[in-house]
Write the structure tokens for this entry.
Amino acid sequence: MKTLRDVKIGETSKVIKIHGEGKVKRRIMDMGITKGTEIYVRKVAPLGDPIEITVRGYELSLRKDDADILEME
């Protein structure tokens, strides 16, 4: 399974499934990340946390834990 954490800087990938539950999944979906959404990885911090992405035309930063629940193409 490929997660958002595995997507390289400068690549775009599509969300296949969100594996979280409850509040975590709802928070991710409220940010506009849903099944079928394309995500562009802009930057990754030196220690890998956070990951800066572009989703639906806006920039967003996600923690590694949140990136791990996003299954990507």
